[in-house]
């Protein structure tokens, strides 16, 4: 099994997958993942958007990827919107790591603004508003044309502790994310494909939808 890894930052979660990587692609020429990949003997491609339209950016990505053989694209700390033409070209083969609970098609912690420390703050706000235990998660899902709406492929719970801040939660989640990525892709290699899953019950209860909206708005505003 071979992966094309998309990453924009340090590569802290991407590097655990380097044994599968045929190429690391980044939009950021200063990304820490570049040195890590080169030290591991992995090809690196830098594709900057700059003044390009999103479609043109996608065309450049597709052109670059033609040089490599891979089965799947794994987005690990990829800070860009994946262009529609890339989504269509590699439909069913692009995965993304999302650092918060997702329930595609229903209310969850995906969508505009739900990234970085903001999404962790939204999770904490929500957990404090509701009257039941609630965990955060690291989720892996398929990427399609709608932001964070691709089918769920797997998730691992991350306990919320009493003294958590967004930063503390983020740091703890990253460690769990590394382990989960290794397990997830090992299973994909074993079974020979990506297998969407369904939640046994909804992530957000019907009477909590308004509280979720409040929590997300509060986090974005802070």
Label the structural class.
Answer: alpha/beta
Continuous helix count: 6
Q: Largest sheet, if any?
A: 7 strands, mixed
| Poorly predicted runs | none
Characterise this structure.
- The protein is α/β, with parallel strands linked by helices and 222 residues long.
- The protein has a single domain, classed as Rossmann fold, CATH 3.40.50.
- 36% of the residues lie in helices and 17% in strands.
- It has 6 helices and 7 strands; from the N terminus they run ββαβαβαβαββαα.
- The chain has helices spanning 32-39, 54-65, 84-89, 116-129, 166-191, 209-221; strands at residues 3-6, 21-26, 43-46, 72-75, 94-98, 136-142, 152-158.
- It has a 7-stranded mixed β-sheet, with helices on both faces.
- α1 links the parallel β2 (21-26) and β3.
- It starts with a strand and ends with a helix.
- 38% of the residues are buried.
- The mean pLDDT is 97.
């Amino acid at each position: 099994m071979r992966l094309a890894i998309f990453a924009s930052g340090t590569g802290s979660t991407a590097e655990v997958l380097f044994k599968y990587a045929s190429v690391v692609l980044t939009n950021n020429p200063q990304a820490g993942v570049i040195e890590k990949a080169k030290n591991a003997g992995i090809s690196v491609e830098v594709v900057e958007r700059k003044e390009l339209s999103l479609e043109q950016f996608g065309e450049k990505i597709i052109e670059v990827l033609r040089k490599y053989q891979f089965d799947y694209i794994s987005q690990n700390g990829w800070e860009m919107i994946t262009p529609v033409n890339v989504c269509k070209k590699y439909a069913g083969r692009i995965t993304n790591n999302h650092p918060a609970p997702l329930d595609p098609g229903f209310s969850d912690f995906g969508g505009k603004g739900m990234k970085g420390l903001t999404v962790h703050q939204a999770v904490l706000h929500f957990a404090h508003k509701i009257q039941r235990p609630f965990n955060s998660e690291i989720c892996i899902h398929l990427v399609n044309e709608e932001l964070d709406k691709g089918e769920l492929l797997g998730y691992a719970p991350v306990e919320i502790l009493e003294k958590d801040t967004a930063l503390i939660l983020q740091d703890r989640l990253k460690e769990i994310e590394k382990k989960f990525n290794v397990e997830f892709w090992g299973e994909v290699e074993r079974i020979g494909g990506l297998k969407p899953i369904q939640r046994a019950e909804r992530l957000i209860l019907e009477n909590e939808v308004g509280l979720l909206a409040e929590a997300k708005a509060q986090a974005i505003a802070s």
